[in-house]
Every structure is written in structure tokens, then in C-alpha cells.
Amino acid sequence: MSTIKPVNKISADKKNKKFFSLAEKTVNYRKLILESAVILFLISLLLVFGYFFKVLTYDINSAERNIDQQIVDLQTKLKQYERVEELTKRFGDLAKDVSAMLPTQSDLPEIFVFLEDTAKSNGLTMNNLEVSKETASDKERDNATKSVLSVALSGGDYFLLKNFLRDLENAGRFLDVTAISYRPEQQTYNLKISLYYLAE
After folding, report:
1. Which residue in 38, 42, 67, 101 is a FRET match for 181, CA 20 to 30 A apart?
2. Checking DSSP bridges between strand 188-198 and strand 125-131, what pairing results, if any?
3. How high does pLDDT run on average in the chain?
4. pTM for this predicted structure
5. What are the backbone dihedrals phi and psi of residue 162, each rounded to the nearest 5 degrees, phi first?
6. Quick one: average pLDDT of 159-164?
């Protein structure tokens, strides 16, 4: 019997070793699986984080591009606004010039006084001034109306008349001398002047 006991003890030790070896392997496999799962989880987390970081970076870059584009658009609109302001000022000045060149009908007495003063300052005498009635063809065209003035002047020579005509041209009013007749024996001039004014 003494020979059988040691065999059973050895056999039990072998079984114990196999069991512990199997348990150890199982524990190692579990550790390996757990470590693999943790690594996979971390890799997945990194991938998700990387994706969101990329999307966030893209969104930030896109927002920056949009802001830059809006700044460029605003600068363009500002330049256009400044141009409109400049044109408004120019056309405002032009409108003042046009209103000075094209008086209203009520300014006719002022025109008459201007013609008489201009004649006197050039050594001429205004003997007569008539305003012709408007014909159908002279009626309003784009809010501008025309009257024809017949002006009779006397005194002076060709050079004085030339100075008178120059002053009419530089008067700032839209006066168009359409005809001139001269009688040397009487030293008289008859002028036809078209006067344009804005219809009220």
C-alpha cells in the first residue's frame, strides 16, 4: 500500500496543476479579452473624437469663411453706398444747375430785367420786348416749355452786340438766340430768343 499512495498523490498534483494551469489560462484569456476590449474601446473613442474634431474644425473653418465673405460683401456694399452718396451729391448739384438754367414760368419778369440790364451794360438800349404765344409744337416736352422772345435793341456797333450775345451765353440760363436781323441805317437789332422753362 505504501506504493499506491504516492501514485495517487502524484496524480492529484498533476490534476491540480492542470486545473491551476487551465484556470490561469482562463484568467489570462479574460485579461487579454478585457485588455483587447479596453483597447478597442479607446480606439473607437479616439476615432469618434477625431471625427467630431474634424467636423468641428470644418464647421469653424466654414464659419470663418462665411464671416470673411460677409465682411467682403459689407465692404462692397459700403463702397457702393459711398458711390451712391457721391452721385447723389453730384446730381443734387446738377439739379440746382438745371433749375437755374430752366426757370419756372413765374420767373419771366426776372428774365426781362436781366435782358435789359445786360443790354445797358453793353451800351445797348432795349426798345421793345414781346413774348410770343406758344403754338402746339412748342407745348410741354418732358416738362420743359418754350417761349419765343422778340427783342429790339438799338445803339452800339457789331462789337457791342457781340459782347451782349457773349453775356447771354454765359448767363447760366438756357437762352437760345435763334435769329438776328440788323438795320444799319437805324442801328437797330432784332433778336429772336428761345426761352425754356419748367412747367409748373
Report:
1. 101
2. unpaired
3. 78
4. 0.48
5. -60, -40
6. 90
HSE of 11, CA atoms in CB hemisphere, 13 A: 5
Question: Coil, strand, or helix at residue 103?
Answer: coil
Separation CA 172–CA 155 (nearest Å): 25
Per-residue pLDDT tens digits for 110-123:
888 888 999 999 99
Phi and psi, residue 28, nearest 5°: -65, -40
Residue 3 grid cell: 506504493
Write the CA distances from 133 to 77, 105, 109, 157, 190, integer angstroms: 52, 13, 16, 31, 18
Q: Which residue has the cell 459782347?
A: 163
| DSSP reduced 3-state for 194 | strand
Place of cell 487551465: 22
> Are the beta carbons of 167 and 118 closer than 8 angstroms?
yes
- Please choose, from the candidates 193, 177, 39, the residue with its C-alpha nearest in 3D space to the C-alpha of residue 130: 193
May I ask the CATH class of domain 105-198? alpha beta
- pLDDT per residue over 43-55, tens digit each? 888 888 888 877 7
The whole-angstrom separation of Cα 45 and Cα 58 is 20
8-state DSSP, 122: T
**What span, in angstroms and rounded, lies between the C-alpha atoms of 188 and 127?**
9
